[in-house]
From TrEMBL:
This is Threonine synthase. Its cofactor is pyridoxal 5'-phosphate. Gene3D superfamilies: 3.40.50.1100. Residues 74-380 form the Tryptophan synthase beta chain-like PALP domain. The lineage of its organism: Bacteria, Bacillati, Actinomycetota, Actinomycetes, Propionibacteriales.
Length: 391
């Protein structure tokens, strides 16, 4: 077996195939690109038992990741976060089989480290030495951190309202930080202006390079392995750009194609805040893509994305798994954050808390059944959001 079974990059919109061994962003048609692997080679050369014998980090799945040479792996030990039972909170919500995938214990304190680890490693491998991106906070701090470990330069733009800890993380690792009076779209516009005059930078904005999603998909691979290669009934994901949800969907499809899991796909749930719910609105209207959300604002700052580049893939993932999209308000998010801490001792981020607020609603409506096994992604530690806790 090769270290990576990466075969090609494929456009999910127009079907055009691209050579992966080049510096590349979007397809010619403007769509994000998806990495495809030689799954026949993986099936013939790798077993689940061999995976289980490897180090407990996301690189245990390296055949299904895009880095070809292990010498190019940039790592801080990311991956294999706990899949925790929440029995007390689950009983309270009417879902005894409630599990939390806790990404707060990963480097930089959020799941963004997964995308950064794989994205930076692959960018380094194809010759990139400078990266640039807009961010709501956590992605920028993660990419800046891994860029520093790789010896790469990073240019990060984020809204001035982004969490202070994220701003300080970017600064401490030596990246260039620009604070923007506006939302993530405004930060993106500033990055585009800068890259028009600065040479050598790769724009690693959400889904504008093909490999962040490959890091995020390892959440799905881990969930399957941690459940004994069985599928849960429902997976909830707090959705801004939606890369993690798309990645989980992609991971489980790859595992099914390998024959490592069977049965129906988990029903995927895109959770948004009522103050920024473009995916939910598109889902309710039956639209293939979302429309830009005006005046976006929510305490769950990480999902304040008025228009996601990969929205069509999020909506496709929901539809193909018989999932749904749901919005919860800020009061419900903060109440869920506090209640999870009170009964389980878990201080989750507001984006993760949005999932628990959604579980409550979906159980009350009957969409989630009492005997469903439900996995909720807590995408980061609550310690990065001290302002959400009144003293």
């Amino acid at each position: 077996m090769r270290f990576s079974a990466l075969r090609q990059l494929e456009c999910p919109k127009c079907g055009l195939v691209h050579d992966p061994d080049q510096v590349i962003g979007l397809c010619d048609c403007g769509s994000p690109l998806l990495a495809r692997y030689d799954l026949d080679e993986v099936r013939a050369g790798l077993t689940k038992a061999e995976v289980a014998s490897r180090a407990p980090d996301l690189w245990r799945y390296h055949e299904l990741l895009p880095v070809r040479d292990p010498a190019n792996v940039i790592s801080l030990g990311e991956g294999m976060t706990p899949l925790l039972a929440l029995p007390a909170y689950g009983r309270e919500l009417g879902v005894p089989n409630l599990l939390m995938k806790d990404e707060g214990l990963i480097p930089t304190g959020t799941f963004k480290a997964r995308g950064a680890a794989v994205g930076v490693s692959r960018a380094y491998e194809v010759g990139v030495r400078k990266i640039a991106m807009p961010t709501n906070g956590n992605a920028g701090s993660a990419w800046a951190t891994f860029a520093a470990r790789a010896g790469m330069e990073a240019l990060i733009a984020m809204p001035i309202a982004a969490p202070e800890i994220c701003r300080r993380e970017v600064t401490i690792v030596g990246a260039e930080l620009k604070l923007i009076d506006g939302l993530i779209g405004d930060a993106g516009a500033w990055i585009r202006e800068q890259l028009a005059t600065r040479d050598g930078y790769l724009d690693v904005s959400t889904l504008k390079e093909p490999y962040r999603i490959e890091g995020k998909k390892t959440m799905g691979l881990e969930i399957a392995e941690q459940l004994g290669w069985k599928m849960p009934d429902v997976i909830l994901y707090p959705t801004g750009g939606g890369v993690g949800l798309i990645g989980i969907w992609k991971a489980l499809a790859e595992l099914a194609a390998l024959g490592w899991v069977d049965g129906p796909m988990p029903r995927l749930v895109a959770v948004q805040a009522t103050g920024c719910a473009p995916i939910v609105t598109a889902w309710e209207k039956g639209l293939p893509e979302s429309e830009p959300w005006a005046d976006a604002k929510t305490v769950a700052f990480g999902i304040t994305v008025p228009k996601a580049l990969g929205d069509f893939l999020v909506l496709q993932a929901i539809a193909e798994t018989d999932g749904c999209a749901i919005a919860v308000d800020d009061e419900e998010i903060l109440a869920a954050q506090r209640r999870c801490a009170e009964v389980e001792g878990a201080f989750v981020c507001p984006e993760g808390a949005a999932n628990f607020a959604a579980v409550r609603q979906l159980r009350a409506s009957g969409w989630i059944k009492a005997d469903d096994q439900v996995v909720a992604l807590n995408t980061g530690t609550g310690l990065k959001y001290p302002e959400t806790v009144p003293l």
